[in-house]
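Lesson 9: reading folded outputs for more than one chain in a single document. The general rule is that every protein is listed as its sequence immediately followed by its structure tokens, and records are never interleaved. Here is the first one.
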Amino acid sequence: MLIATVTDLMPATTSSPPAEDADNALARLASKGDMMAFEALYRRHVGRVHGVITRLVGGAGARAEDLAQEAFVRAWQALPSYRFESAFGTWLYRLAVNTALMELRSRRSQPFTDSGEDVFDDIGTPDSAGHATALSRDLEQAVATLPSRARAVLVLHDVEGWKHEEIATELDMAVGTSKAQLHRARRLLRTRLGEHA
């Protein structure tokens, strides 16, 4: 009779490197002009890059897509100077956030024309399967309607895990202002989600 334990069934070594090691290996190849390596990096990270940009710019679908592409173009251009001091993913997401923040800064100088309230129109309506709209969709839509600075602080702090000092530096505001914007964003979200529950 053969009795196997869990450790007997596990391979002695794993054949696939951790994600960070794989990213760094691909980034080294891409920094030397390897388009296939960069395409692999793109496929590995496009979802999160697009997600953070979408949340930061308020759900502007086509514009978020353009900004995600712009972030990857910037990454391709900056790869030769990437020093591998941090994980590639960290470097890329910081670059994506900066791309979105530049968009938000440029919007400040433009007149605001859309209140964004129309995103609430379909909350609670049945989807194609006859189910109510998911809470995550409601939350994403509510986040999209927040004022841009409050939304940026909320996304950077609560979603991306940045510290208030980092947010203050990136958004050119005082640490106290960052904390106040986070409080404001959370309060507005509670109100908006409560109104449309």
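And here is the second record, again sequence then tokens.
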Amino acid sequence: MPRPLRTIAQGVTYHCFTRCRGKRDLLRSKYGKKYFIESIKLCQEKYNFELIAAETVANHIHILIKTLENRETISLIMQFIKARMAEKYNRGTGETGPFWNERFGSTIIEESDNPEEYLLWLLWYIGYNPVRKGLSRDPRENEIGFINCYLNENFISPLRFTLHEYFLRLGKNFMECVEKFLYYEDAYRKRLVLWI
């Protein structure tokens, strides 16, 4: 059965995710995270898009990307990131063969029933992913730590993130946005307790 065609749109926010081959924990090492960060930096130098969030979790990644009108497609951006990551990993470790398990999955945030709530919840879901896997104790301590960009106006991240417009609509100033954004963390943590 052929794979369904990916919906390609411009000027929308994609939640992209993909796993390492054989679900192996290839991203658990410091090199996996380092190569992931370097690959996204290279992509940001080459293509125009907004990086909303990015996180590694041992055997998979989550990236939120907003494509821009009349610029590169999500397929081109993700293909670049995945290819650079595989090249760097294989060169650095001496391994050969594929790094990734399959083509990346994606959903368009704006096509959900309530895009604003979904995106704000999704930011915490991605941030807490390493916590759920026992890789950190708090999303604020994650190595990439994108969530800190949404909590501290002066946070310096290893990647260049763009605060999503849905976050910026939460208040009249940054602190008001943060205060309302933290309600989503509380709601997510309550839901997380129910999952455990």
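What the second record shows: The chain has a mean pLDDT of 90.
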